[in-house]
């Protein structure tokens, strides 16, 4: 059904039912969608209509309908429409640990350009980029993630051998941060938990999970904030419960990570509940 003319320029985002380690959305935006921001996940998507324009690695990129977008963890990017008509897209956000479960200690695949027409990636993302109303069975999602990890490694030319970093230390650090994300974690704690000095551990963590230990900790707090806001918590309560020093501290990190203030994010997300 066509959208009424009075709502034709309304931005919206629809979310799939969340599954462990993967977030799936479909969205429509006109004009400026997101300010510069960065995730600690892969952002992999497909443009469905219009021109999806974004800044990535010091260049402007335009994704056309049918193109596949692959943004590496922790790479700053923004988002806007390339024409007056706006753009529509689907995107999945995949935690690097899910690809590491497949790659087994190899360096994370990196695609320089951010936009690709490679048929291997188009095929490997087909199941994961279905309409958000489609439910993926656990085995279906697992198989699709494995196919995608292998396709990314092949297209990126990732060496088949393991990286020289300490994968076990990085894994232990991630587990420790996950379990203690709502409080301050010290470098001494991480060294004790992993048996690795802080500088080597930081390098290992970036190699295997695409971000720094502190960024990983902050993202887990922001995940908690989004869950609390969806459940009706105030901004101040969500910030405190998630482990931030205060609301302004949380808001700064939220905007840098998602390209939207918490208030704007709630406004756009509110269109989902409103139908």
UniProtKB/TrEMBL annotation:
Pfam families: AraC_binding, HTH_18. InterPro entries: AraC-bd, AraC_XylS_family_regulators, Homeodomain-like_sf, HTH-like, HTH_AraC. Keywords: DNA-binding, Transcription, Transcription regulation. Residues 171-268 form the HTH araC/xylS-type domain. It comes from the Bacteria. Coiled coil: none annotated. One of its GO terms (molecular function) is sequence-specific DNA binding. This is Transcription regulator, AraC family. It comes from Cupriavidus taiwanensis (strain DSM 17343 / BCRC 17206 / CCUG 44338 / CIP 107171 / LMG 19424 / R1) (Ralstonia taiwanensis (strain LMG 19424)).
């Amino acid at each position: 059904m066509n959208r009424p003319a009075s709502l034709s320029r309304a931005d919206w985002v629809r979310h799939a039912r969340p599954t462990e380690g993967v977030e799936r959305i479909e969205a429509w935006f006109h004009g400026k969608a997101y300010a510069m921001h960065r995730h600690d996940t892969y952002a992999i998507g497909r443009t469905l209509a219009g021109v999806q324009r974004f800044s990535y690695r010091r260049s402007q990129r335009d994704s056309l309908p049918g193109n596949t977008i692959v943004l590496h963890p922790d790479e700053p990017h923004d988002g806007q429409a390339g024409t007056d008509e706006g753009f529509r897209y689907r995107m999945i956000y995949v935690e690097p640990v899910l690809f590491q479960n497949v790659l087994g200690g190899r360096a994370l695949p990196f695609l320089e350009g951010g936009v690709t027409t490679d048929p291997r990636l188009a095929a490997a993302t087909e199941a994961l980029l279905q309409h958000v109303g489609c439910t993926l069975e656990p085995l279906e999602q697992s198989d699709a993630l494995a196919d995608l990890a292998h396709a990314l490694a092949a297209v990126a030319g990732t060496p088949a051998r393991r990286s020289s970093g300490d994968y076990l230390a990085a894994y232990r650090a991630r587990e420790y941060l996950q379990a203690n994300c709502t409080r301050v974690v010290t470098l001494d704690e991480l060294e004790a938990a992993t048996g690795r000095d802080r500088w080597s551990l930081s390098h290992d963590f970036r190699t295997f999970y695409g971000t720094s230990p502190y960024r990983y900790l902050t993202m887990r707090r922001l995940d908690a904030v989004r869950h609390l806001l969806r459940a009706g918590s105030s901004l101040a309560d969500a910030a405190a419960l998630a482990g931030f020093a205060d609301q302004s501290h949380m808001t700064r990190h939220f905007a840098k990570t998602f390209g939207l203030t918490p208030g704007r994010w709630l406004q756009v997300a509110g269109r989902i509940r409103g139908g």
